[in-house]
């Protein structure tokens, strides 16, 4: 016997311009059950989530709530109908206390202003329901992350949410906090609240879910009950048949060691004494391509940023062509041929106020400054060459504003900017993040071509399909250390197992 | 968050966009036309040159301010630095008593100019170091320096004014008046100084690596740093340049007045910021041009002088200036409003 679904997605599709973020997704959310969305980055999970919570409207298809088709005007409208979302980045005012956060924007007004006593009483009730011992008057910033999440849940419950969407709720939690969260989720479902759960931790999600929806490149590839599926089934449907992202370039001799990382440690940003990169050693030859795979928090970004000079190491050293780069600034490292393409291109890669051409020439502008002034001719040549080489879809002068390009082309600009400095070693942090599959293939082709000409390439990824493309070697990172090393013939499941994503038997 | 797709037709003639783009220019034209109609004395070469020499002071400050604002900072200390540099110049012109040697040293005018500019650079360096190395917010750092510089000027002079800066022939330090009173080809020297500085700054911004670094670090400091831009050096340099500009403005002003008072340049920093903003620069950094800033300075100068000429009370001038500034910022936020991502 199946109860009527509380919410159903019927042929939901969403397109941004020519990019189809979602293509015809169908599934039901049943009362008192957990439905998990599985999928790699860019598969469309977050778009689907935004549609369900009223943040964006679908291009086509409909949402059926309690048997009737609905359209949400905005997220407040969705919340009023009982659908709340808890984002990965919590939306609490850290400076205010638990009570004020829970009633933020809908304060209980009594005869003489806000009725704090009543708010506090209701907050205590909510906490008692959740069996959490959090005082309503504690400032949120004094709570642990797991407790902050509970506060978010309490806030959602306080508006009588029947459907709670949770985006990567466990990504920053400790194992005990995850246990607490799961207990809360089980209590909630027992009370009839439906949960839509999104997580990269497949094993963890399988413990809690009743239904699985798998997305790949915007399309729903599978939808099944928990009892019918296992881990391998999810991985198979998530990754699918591989789009050809190329193969490791061959037919040339690799050169000498271009970069070697020796026992490198990077302290945690908060400086609490534990290392996000822990005595890690790795070397790459000229012409070699290495892929670093790992989950969020494995220490990939910190490792790469330390190599590039953004973060200071707490131990070990980085040798570029046999010379220690310790103490060199980022600019000096670039001049010696060591460049980084950062993970977040909007935040760290591009200057949004400048044109395509100015962005492309930014890192190499010193090279064509003759005497006092920059040579316009030299700059135009560098820009035109870079646009041609990395195949940016824009006019050759590069005068268009950078914001007018698509994500994939923007990423190519960031890569082109660094390639224009004629580097020996290029380090790329998630170069494929947020770009479509065609642009991915082009980025990888670009890197493979560079390698053939003697460039040493290190790139990181959190999508296992991208490990098995152009990389000669695959390094798996887990908690700041290398947990496994493979050649390019390895199976995907082995890579995932080594990352701690799915525990192999 | 309705995302209407942005049309790709950039070539099309859009009168509103053109008006918005060249608003400072059109504002200046409008001001000239309106005041020419209201007063027969407004539209004459002689009057324009007089007004331009008033604009020179704000304009020179605004050049330095533009560099700082392009970097995403703000320099509130330029008015005080202007006052202080006038006092330093006055102090030097009146002779430095060296007790041990028992002589009074009268430095020649060129040395006075160099020493004053050095002092301006030093004040700017303090600002830059506070902002770049010690991470003090620019607003607070330059606010503090503003008070300190003003205080030093008052201490130096005991609140009095250095009069008669013309120097004496027998002391060999004549010529200070040249900056403020002389003309080359009929154009006041102050205006020529402004033009020279504007051209130099314009070339620096458009044609040198430093200029590109400045725009880049103002637009996105993290990206600039990862692209090898020495962001800290750029940051300190812009404050130093702003300090030098303030010192030059101080020299021109005290030469024009043939006196240097410790309270000179009070609140001029706000006029300079206004000129930069009217010129279309974004206070968030990364956007702005010398051309716009110069137009902005002339808009403010020609407006307030025009109001004086037609006999409007100075209280109303303040109201008008304020309204123009708010309007300019309003238009800036329309022009730079975030565009929906394609």
Automatic annotation (TrEMBL), chain A:
GO terms for cellular component: plasma membrane. Keywords: ATP-binding, Cell membrane, Membrane, Nucleotide-binding, Repeat, Sugar transport, Translocase, Transport. It is a peripheral membrane protein. The keyword Nuclease does not apply. It is found in: Cell membrane. InterPro entries: AAA+_ATPase, ABC_carbohydrate_import_ATPase, ABC_transporter-like_ATP-bd, ABC_transporter-like_CS, P-loop_NTPase. Residues 7-242, 259-504 form the ABC transporter domain. The keyword Glycoprotein does not apply. Its main location: membrane. Transmembrane segments: none annotated. One of its GO terms (molecular function) is ATP binding. It comes from the Bacteria. It holds the Pfam family ABC_tran. Gene3D superfamilies: P-loop containing nucleotide triphosphate hydrolases. This is Sugar ABC transporter ATP-binding protein. It comes from Cypionkella aquatica.
UniProtKB/TrEMBL annotation, chain B:
It is a multi-pass membrane protein. The keyword Transmembrane helix applies. One of its GO terms (molecular function) is transmembrane transporter activity. It comes from the Bacteria. GO terms for cellular component: plasma membrane. InterPro entries: ABC_transp_permease. PANTHER family: ABC TRANSPORTER PERMEASE PROTEIN YPHD-RELATED, ABC TRANSPORTER PERMEASE PROTEIN YPHD-RELATED-RELATED. This is Sugar ABC transporter permease. It comes from Cypionkella aquatica.
């Amino acid at each position: 016997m199946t109860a009527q679904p509380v919410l159903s997605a019927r042929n939901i599709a969403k397109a941004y311009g020519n990019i189809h973020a979602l293509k015809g997704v169908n599934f039901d959310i049943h009362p008192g059950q957990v439905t998990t969305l599985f999928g790699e980055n860019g598969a469309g999970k977050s778009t689907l989530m935004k549609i369900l919570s009223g943040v964006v409207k679908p291009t086509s298809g409909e949402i059926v709530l309690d048997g009737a088709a609905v359209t949400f005007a905005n997220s407040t409208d969705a919340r009023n109908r009982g659908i709340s979302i808890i984002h990965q980045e919590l939306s609490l005012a850290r400076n205010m206390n638990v009570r004020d956060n829970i009633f933020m924007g809908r304060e209980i007004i009594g005869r003489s202003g806000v009725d704090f006593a009543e708010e506090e009483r209701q907050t205590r009730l909510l906490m008692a329901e959740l069996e959490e011992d959090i005082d309503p008057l504690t400032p949120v910033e004094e709570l642990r992350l797991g407790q902050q999440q509970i506060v978010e849940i309490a806030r959602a419950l306080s508006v009588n949410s029947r459907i709670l969407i949770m985006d990567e709720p466990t990504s920053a939690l400790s194992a005990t906090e995850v246990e607490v969260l799961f207990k809360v989720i089980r209590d909630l479902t027992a009370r009839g609240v439906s949960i839509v759960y999104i997580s990269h931790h497949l094993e963890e999600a399988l413990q809690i879910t009743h239904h699985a929806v798998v997305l790949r490149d915007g399309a729903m590839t599978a939808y099944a009950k928990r009892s019918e599926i296992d881990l391998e089934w999810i991985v198979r449907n998530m990754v699918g048949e591989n789009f050809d992202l190329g193969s490791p370039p061959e037919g040339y001799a690799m050169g000498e060691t271009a970069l070697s990382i020796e026992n490198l440690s990077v302290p945690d940003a908060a400086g609490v004494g534990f290392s996000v990169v822990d005595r890690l050693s790795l070397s790459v030859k000229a012409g070699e391509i290495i892929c670093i795979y790992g989950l969020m928090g494995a220490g990939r970004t910190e490792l790469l940023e330390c190599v590039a000079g953004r973060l200071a190491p707490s131990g070990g050293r980085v040798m570029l062509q046999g010379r220690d780069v310790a103490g060199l600034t980022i600019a000096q490292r670039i001049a010696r041929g060591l460049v980084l393409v950062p993970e977040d291109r909007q935040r760290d890669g591009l200057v949004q106020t400048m044109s395509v051409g100015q962005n492309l020439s930014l890192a190499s502008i010193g090279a064509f400054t003759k005497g006092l002034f920059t040579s316009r001719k030299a700059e135009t040549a560098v820009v035109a060459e870079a646009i041609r080489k990395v195949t940016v879809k824009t006019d050759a002068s590069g005068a268009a504003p950078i914001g007018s390009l698509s994500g994939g082309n923007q990423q190519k600009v960031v890569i082109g900017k660094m390639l224009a400095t004629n580097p020996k070693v290029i380090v790329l942090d998630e170069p494929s993040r947020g770009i479509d599959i065609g642009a991915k293939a082009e980025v990888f082709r670009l890197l493979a071509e560079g390698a053939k000409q003697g460039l040493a390439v290190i790139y990181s990824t959190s999508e296992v399909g991208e490990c098995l493309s152009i990389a000669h070697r695959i390094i798996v990172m887990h908690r700041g250390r290398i947990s496994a090393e493979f050649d390019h013939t390895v199976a995907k499941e082995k890579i995932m197992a080594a990352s701690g994503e799915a525990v192999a038997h | 968050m309705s995302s209407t797709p942005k049309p790709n037709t950039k070539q099309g003639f859009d009168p509103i966009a053109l008006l918005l783009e060249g608003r400072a220019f059109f504002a200046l034209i409008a001001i000239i036309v309106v005041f020419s109609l209201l007063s027969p004395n407004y539209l004459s070469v002689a009057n324009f040159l007089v007004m331009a020499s008033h604009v020179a002071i704000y304009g020179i400050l605004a050049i330095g301010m533009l560099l700082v604002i392009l970097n995403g900072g703000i320099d509130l200390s330029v008015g005080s630095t202007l006052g202080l540099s006038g006092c330093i110049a006055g102090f030097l012109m009146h002779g430095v008593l060296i007790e041990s040697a028992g002589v009074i040293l009268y430095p020649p005018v060129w040395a006075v100019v160099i020493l004053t500019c050095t002092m301006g650079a030093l004040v700017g360096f303090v600002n830059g170091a506070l902002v770049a190395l010690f991470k003090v917010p620019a607003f607070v750092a330059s606010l503090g320096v503003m008070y300190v510089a003003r205080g030093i000027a008052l201490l130096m002079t005991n609140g009095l004014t250095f009069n008669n800066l013309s120097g004496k022939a027998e002391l060999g330090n004549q010529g200070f008046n040249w900056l403020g009173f002389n003309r080359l080809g009929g154009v006041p020297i102050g205006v020529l100084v402004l033009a020279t500085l504007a051209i130099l700054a314009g070339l620096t911004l458009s044609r040198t690596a430093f200029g590109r670094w400045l725009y880049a670090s103002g637009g996105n400091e993290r990206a600039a740093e990862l692209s090898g831009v020495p962001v800290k050096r750029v940051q300190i340099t812009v404050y130093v340049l702003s300090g030098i500009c303030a010192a030059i403005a101080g020299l021109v002003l005290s030469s024009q007045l043939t006196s240097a008072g410790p309270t000179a340049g009070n609140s001029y920093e706000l006029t300079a910021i206004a000129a930069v903003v009217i010129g279309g620069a974004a206070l968030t950094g990364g956007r702005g041009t010398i051309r716009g800033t110069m137009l902005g300075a002339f808009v403010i100068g020609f407006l307030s002088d025009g109001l004086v000429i037609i006999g409007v009370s100075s209280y109303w001038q303040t109201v008008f200036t304020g309204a123009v500034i708010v309007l300019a910022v309003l238009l800036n936020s329309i022009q730079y409003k975030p565009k929906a991502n394609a």
